[in-house]
Amino acid sequence: MKRLKALVVDDEPLARERLSRLLQEADCAVVGELSDGQALLQWLKQPQELDVIFLDIQMPGPNGMEVLAEAPSCPPVVFVTAHSTYAVRAFELAAADYLLKPVFEDRLAKCLQRLRQNLVRPLNPSELKTLLPPPVRFPIRAGDGEIFMELDLITHFELQDDHVWACRGMNRYVTRWTTLSEVEQAFPDDGMLRIQRHLLLRPKMVRGIRPATVGRVKVMIAPKVELTVSRAMTPRMRAYLRTEPD
Question: Where are the 4-aspartylphosphate residues found in this chain (predicted)?
Answer without folding.
Answer: 56
